[in-house]
Amino acid sequence: MVAMAPAHAMLACLGGGVLAAHAVPALAQPLPRIGDLLGVERRVPGPAAVALTFDDGPHPQATEQVLEVLRARRATATFFLVGEQAVRHGGAAAEVAAAGHAIGVHGFRHRNLLRLTPAQTVDDLRRGRAAVAEATGLDPWVYRPPYGVLSGGALREARRRRWRVVLWSRWGRDWRADATAGSVCTLVVAGLAGRDVVLLHDADHYAAAGSWRATVGALPRILDAIQDAGLVTVRL
C-alpha cells in the first residue's frame, strides 16, 4: 500500500461536511454559479472594460517584455505575483508596480490548495502577501489561487484580509508546450466582450519552458482586438 501524504491523510479523516467546505470552493472556476454564491469574481464592472491579468511572475525576461508591450500600447493590467518569485526577482516585481499596474497575490508557492491543510494555506497566503508587499512596496488586495483552485481555507483567509478573489472568464492556455502566439490570441479574442477577465502568464516557472514567448507574441494582437472592439483595458 502506498503511504498517504500528510494532507491527504488529514482529508481522509474528515467528515463529509468538513470535506465539502474544504473542496466545494474549487468548483468556483468550472461552475461560475458556485463562484457567484461564494462571492468569487470573474467579471469586471463596465460594459466596455476588459481586465488583462498575468499569473505566475515575476520573471526576469518575460515580465519585462510584457511590460514593454503594455507600455507601448498604453494598456493597463493586473499581475498576480508568486511570493517565492518576488523574492528571487524583486527587481522585476518592482518594475510592475512602478509601471502603474495592479498587484495581486498568487500565494507564496504555486501549489494546489486542496492538497494543503487550512493552517498550511493560511501560512502560504501570509508569506505570499509579505513577499509581494516587500518587493513592490504595495499591499495587495486582490487574490487568485494557483490553477484557479480555491479551497475553503483560502476563501476564509481572503475574506478575513478583505481581499477580492478574482478568477477569469477567458484564457489563452499559454502555459502549454504547444502554445503559439496565434493559438493564444485565437482563444482569447474569440467572443471577447466587455467585462471579460483574461488570464495570461508572464512566466514559465510552473509551465512549459519558454511558453511565455507565445504570450508576448500574442499580446499585441490581443490589444489590437480589444481596441477594434471598442473596449478598454482596466486594472482590477
UniProtKB/TrEMBL annotation:
Q: Which InterPro entries match?
A: Glyco_hydro/deAcase_b/a-brl, NODB_dom, Polysacc_deacetylase_ArnD
Any one GO MF annotation of this record: hydrolase activity, acting on carbon-nitrogen (but not peptide) bonds
Tell me one GO biological process term.
Answer: carbohydrate metabolic process
What residue stretches are annotated with the NodB homology domain?
48-234
**The keyword Signal is annotated on this UniProt entry:** yes
Which superkingdom, per the lineage? Bacteria
- Keyword Signal listed? The answer is yes
- Endpoints of the signal sequence: 1-28
Q: Which UniProt keywords apply?
A: Signal
- Which named protein is this? NodB homology domain-containing protein
